[in-house]
Amino acid sequence: MNCEGDFFVIKAKENGVHVIGLTRGQDTRFHHTEKLDKGEVMLAQFTEHTSAIKIRGKAEILTKHGVVDTDE
């Protein structure tokens, strides 16, 4: 497993926040889902299999580029 990619943090601000990993390749598909409850934190990164991540619900995303709040 390649662990050289940048990590980011997703912190749930409500129960039931969905984190959905999307695949690379010709067809983009869902390949992994997680459900976070309020206060739970997930550390994630992009890999050779994951090209995008979709977040449903109120959450705070912390990256080296700054903080994104889904409330805004």
Uncertain stretches of 5 or more adjacent residues: none
CATH fold description = Immunoglobulin-like
Shape: globular
Task: Count every beta strand, where a strand is a DSSP E run of 2 or more residues.
Answer: 7
Distance between the amino and carboxyl termini:
35 Å
Helix/strand-derived category reads mainly beta
Biggest β-sheet: strands ordered side by side in the sheet = 4-1-6-7
Number of helices: 0
Under the CATH scheme, which architecture would be assigned? Sandwich
Mean pLDDT: 86
Series of secondary-structure elements, N-terminal to C-terminal: EEEEEEE
Largest sheet descriptor: 4 strands, antiparallel
Under CATH, the homologous superfamily reads TRAP-like
The Rg value, from CA coordinates, equals: 12 Å
